[in-house]
Amino acid sequence: MRNDLAKILLGEEEIQKRVRELGAELARDYVGLEPTLVCILKGAVMFYADLCRAIPIQVNMDFMAVSSYGNRTKSSGEVEIRKDLSRPIDGRHVIIVEDIMDSGFTLSYLSRVLASRGAASVKICTLLDKPERRAPGITVKADYFGFTIGNEFVVGYGLDYAERYRNLPYIGVLRPEIYENN
Ligand code: IMP
Ligand code: MG
Q: Hey, which end of the chain has fewer CB within 10 Å, N or C?
């Protein structure tokens, strides 16, 4: 897998250090509130598992899956819920945990949907943010983010290209010829 990458953008230790910082920040902000951390499958799974373990207060865990890029590297702007939460969230403090914010369509849609279900609050925690790529008219912002990155397609630590590379323990930039051949 390493040979398919042009470079490693974020190494294992750098990621783990930042995740621990985010966990400590969330623990301070949510003490006494027992938030529900919503993992957006599948991309956020590594980040979510590490983040939850870095938060030393009571939290609830739940999972959602939404439609994503498929095998393409650009967002369609359409979002579809493929798997919904297992419990109601009315009155609960919700933190959406996502791998990456790109066009912003996914998180804009999800925060609206979860707020409309009567959550006491809805905040966004994304590992990566690509602010340059935000679609026109999208105003949603990440309340918590790990790293800001440029306009590059990245894989690893949960992020995929065509379902591959999610199991890399670090984040790298895929060589363009890997997806240009498709
Ligand atoms: P958005 O709705 O355009 O913000 O897209 C968010 C989703 O697109 C993420 O949850 C990822 O699944 C996917 N995505 C965006 N950029 C990348 C990338 O660089 N690598 C892998 N997946 C990405
Ligand atoms: Mg995703």
A: C
